[in-house]
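Q: What would this chain look like folded?
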Amino acid sequence: MSVWDDLPGQGKTITALSRAVAEGNPSHAWLFTGPPGSGRSNAARAFAAALQCTVPDAANRGCGQCKACVTVLAGTHPDVALIATEKVNYQIEDVRELITKAQDRPSTAPWRVIIVEDADRMTERTTNVLLKSIEEPPPHTIWILCAPSPADVLVTIRSRCRSVSLSVPTRAAVAELLVRRDGLSEAQADFAARISQSHIGIARRLARDEDARRRRDRTVRMPLRVRGVADAVMAAAELVDLSTAEATAAATERAEAEATALRTALGLDADAPVPPQQRSQFKALEENAKRRARRSTHDALDRSLIDLTTFFRDVLMLQMNSGTELVNDYLADDLRSYAAASRPEATVAKIDAIAEARTRIGANVAPLLAVEAMMVALRPSK
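A: My prediction, written as structure tokens:
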């Protein structure tokens, strides 16, 4: 076992990172890029673990067995910080805290490593705050930024980082990982890897959570039920509710738990009024909860729209006789019937309509309005 075992299909990347660890003088800033499902965060954690590994032989660092490797992968190593925002974007205050943390010398390891997930969620103003620390980092501090592509990060940051590009693993590689690590049967693992399009995290969730599989199935089948405008409006409402209900419930539950914990810490009873001097703390808690709820609901809906895209992707593959495997192979008969009743140009237009809806939601258009317009565009062509 090693820290690299959870990175299927990334042999060249693993070789390059292992070489950087063995050389003993890694770059002070790294940019890990790759599409969703490529394992950017897993690769960043594995690299951090290898940097902190205590195995004497430098060529074999990243053993996965020593205390340093285990604690880094578990997220409890004192000199490795894994930063992820639950808001729509990173706030300037968040980045300033990171910069302060970066000034500290490592306490038990040779390096202080700061991993920033979703670095593309930094606005230009926020990124500029981070720039100086990336340009002139303290000794023994290593930054690892993760983003979907180099273009998602400001060029001033990108030019100061060593780039590591990851690719989406093959379906077979993901299935093998699920069998080996999660104990799934080969059939379960292959089905989850297929419908998740080789996204490791989503594949694991779909394989283990029947409700998640049911929600996805209802989403993917929606085009089969949309015939007119009335159907489109009803389907839009169902899709938004289906995508956001779970995320909203989880966010509300967490917000209530945080408010209860704050009351307990301040010595306030559940029904006691909040003293004026402490209202700012509750106000900040509410604002964070709102941002977190927006992020979670946006992400849930975006994932549903990606799942919906796979339906039309499969239809287009059938219309073009490409011979490519279907993502939703279990719906093969329905997909063939749908494909036979329309033309490729219409299918491409529907895929574009889904992409436009994702863009609009990302630009803060009301989700229901964006999805209704999309669903109307998904009606079968006459």
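The mean pLDDT is 87.
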